[in-house]
Design a protein that fits this description.
Layout: E1 4-12, E2 15-23, E3 28-32, H1 39-47, E4 54-59, E5 62-63, E6 74-77, H2 89-99, H3 104-117, H4 133-145, E7 151-155, H5 163-177, E8 184-188, H6 191-197, E9 200-205, E10 208-213, H7 215-220, H8 225-231, E11 234-248, E12 251-267, E13 272-275, E14 285-297, E15 300-306, E16 311-315, H9 317-323, E17 330-335, E18 341-344
The structure holds adenosine-5'-triphosphate (ATP).
Residues 12, 15, 33, 35-41, 189 line the site of adenosine-5'-triphosphate (ATP).
Length: 345
């Protein structure tokens, strides 16, 4: 089965997409990024709905960027499913193969088998409006797979679902995707979708790839503020000399590992402890800070602090009351060196 190798360049007024994208056969790659990063543009370029201004798209070593969308052998699942409303689930799935000349009875038998595989044997005769959001999403996926596409594209496949259905569907979608032998590219701005469904994440910001890797690498070693916020870490750039990293002006953090030169330092908000007075026998990183904001964060409170560095700290509501944390309140922050990871920038 064919691998995807693409360099997508699309120029618009005030926006340029310039992104390299690779996916091996059977690999699910999530394209993750903030609004306006160019995710949809990239997906539409792969599908052939937007022309490339430069670059290339190769599938199994064959250039497909000059080929019309309907001849690219690409399966697409859009977020709003786009099922034919007047056809049953079975007819929707059989439609593609029928258009490719597969005899009616065989197309229907294949469609029935595909629907059964995603647990929809009992819904095969229903029209899209008689299906739940999660069921319609599965029909759309199966329909995209029915023609045996060489590349599968998913555009925010769970976005239209309510929270509960989203949870169930997300859990099953991964298994359904395993039935596709070719590469899959999934576009989402939901980090959970990306991490649960994809083998590898490609982070897109301002039309450029800023980081790529598996979920574990990306969550432990973010390389941009967007990714750091996404995974809930404090992130700084600095210069390392052994375990000391100068991160801002003459402010230096002691970190867990020896590094040299340009590095990132990352640590979770829960690793930052707050005190009313300078802590005694303190950990190596201690600095005065001022509370800028107090936000709810699950069961904890997230405290945003200004000072020599801007930092987020998670504290319990009880600790927040005890310390009288409110905007403008001066505090001491401390961080154990073992909690601060440094890695090359
Ligand atoms: N048809 C178009 N013509 C001109 N500019 C466009 C067009 N479609 C999108 N853009 C611009 O291209 C940029 C990227 O948009 P795109 O929709 O690809 O981003 P996205 O990452 O998918 O965002 P979102 O998550 O909001 O859907 C944006 O600045 C957008 O305004």
């Amino acid at each position: 089965m064919s691998a995807l190798d693409a360099h997508l360049v699309v120029r618009r007024d005030g926006f340029t997409l310039d992104a390299e994208l690779r996916a091996a056969a059977g690999e699910v790659v999530a394209l993750l990024g903030p609004n306006g990063a160019g995710k949809t543009t990239a997906l539409r370029a792969l599908a052939g709905l937007v022309a490339l201004d430069d670059g290339h798209i190769e599938l199994g070593g064959e250039r497909i960027d000059g080929i019309a969308p309907e001849h690219r052998h690409i399966g697409v699942v859009f977020q709003d499913y786009l099922l034919f409303p007047h056809l049953s689930a079975l007819e929707n799935v059989a439609f593609g193969p029928r258009c490719r000349g597969v005899p009616r009875s065989r197309a229907r038998a294949q469609a029935a088998e595909l629907l059964a595989r995603v647990g929809l044997a009992g819904q095969a005769g229903r029209k899209p409006r008689q299906l739940s959001g999660g069921q319609a999403q599965r029909v759309a996926l199966v329909r995209a797979l029915a023609t045996g596409p060489r590349l599968l594209l998913l555009d925010e496949p769970l976005a239209a679902l309510d929270a509960r259905t989203r949870l169930d569907t997300r859990a099953h979608l991964r298994g359904h995707l395993a039935g596709h032998a070719g590469p899959t590219v999934l576009v989402t701005h939901d980090p959970l979708d990306a991490m649960m469904l994809a083998d590898r994440l490609v982070i897109l910001e301002h039309g450029r790839v800023v980081q790529t890797g598996d979920a574990a690498t990306i969550t432990s070693r973010p390389r941009t503020d967007y990714v750091a916020r996404l995974v809930g870490l404090n992130l700084y750039r600095g210069r390392a000399d052994g375990d000391l990293v100068r991160v801002a002006g003459d402010f230096t953090l002691t970190t867990a590992g020896p590094q040299h030169g340009d590095v990132f330092v990352a640590f979770p908000p829960a690793a930052v402890a707050l005190y009313a007075a300078r802590p005694e026998g303190s950990p190596r990183n201690t600095w005065p800070a001022t509370v800028a904001a107090v936000l709810r964060h699950g069961d904890a409170l997230r405290i945003e602090l200004t000072g020599p560095i801007t930092v987020a700290a998670d504290v319990t509501p009880a600790a927040a009351v005890q310390l009288g944390l409110e905007p403008g309140r001066p505090v001491w922050a401390s961080l154990k060196a073992t909690e601060a990871t440094s890695y090359p920038a």
